[in-house]
Write a structure and sequence with these properties.
The protein has 1 helix and no strands. The chain is mainly alpha-helical.
Length: 39
């Protein structure tokens, strides 16, 4: 039972990291597009 809880928490944390990384990449691409459009 303890192993299942630890596994669930670990998977949730890893999924959260991937989600935030993807969000950061999207924001970075949007910023680059804005910079290119102002030149």
């Amino acid at each position: 039972m303890k192993r299942m809880i630890i596994l669930t928490v670990a998977l949730t944390v890893l999924a959260g990291c991937n989600t935030w990384r993807g969000f950061g990449q999207d924001v970075e691409k949007a910023g680059e597009a804005i910079q290119k459009s102002t030149k």
